[in-house]
Amino acid sequence: MAGGADSFRSLLRAANALLQKRRYHAALAVIKGFRNGAVYGAKIRAPHALVMTFLFKSGSLREKLKSIAQATYAHSRNLAYFVFTYKGLLAAQSWLQGRKIPFHSFLAACFGGWLVFGDNNPINSQIVMYLLSRILFGLSRLAVEKGYIPRPKQDPFPLVAALVWGTVLWLFEYHKETLQPSLQSSMTYLYEDSEVWHDLSDFLVYNKRTDSK
């Protein structure tokens, strides 16, 4: 028993010593990036899938739980693969050129995005659209910081909010098929289901009647 404990402690010390070696840092960062991508993807997707599934999807409890598990696994896997690919390519480019330059990040991420997120499915589509909105805000701020466009005298956010909401409701009302399914479900609940009721039960208590009255 004592021998097994000693062997485990020796193995733990060797692993910790390996983690401290700078020459292995790039490779170890790739492995930890894979781990962090998997964990973060699961943390983000699981609660979102749980809420959206129970709010908007029909089916048995088993089918709903299966859908949640599949969505969580897909998000976690894709994010882990992407971080692994991105950091691996970043390290390879830095090693080949002897230094890290900004274009390395762009090229590595482009390849990782094409390889991992190139399949047009609901999970990837949602992630890409989430990033797109952040990119537009980020590029706008960068353009102001660099002096490419003048700094606005007033906060432009109210105008942005008005245009975003005006456009998305116009699309929902007249070109619904162009919107992502989860957004269609949310907006149907908010703007279409609120037009229909039969009595007090489905006016205040429930969204839709569950009986055949």
Automatic annotation (TrEMBL):
<dbReference type="GO" id="GO:0005778">
    <property type="term" value="C:peroxisomal membrane"/>
</dbReference>
<dbReference type="Pfam" id="PF02466">
    <property type="entry name" value="Tim17"/>
</dbReference>
<protein>
    <submittedName>
        <fullName>PXMP4 protein</fullName>
    </submittedName>
</protein>
<dbReference type="InterPro" id="IPR019531">
    <property type="entry name" value="Pmp4"/>
</dbReference>
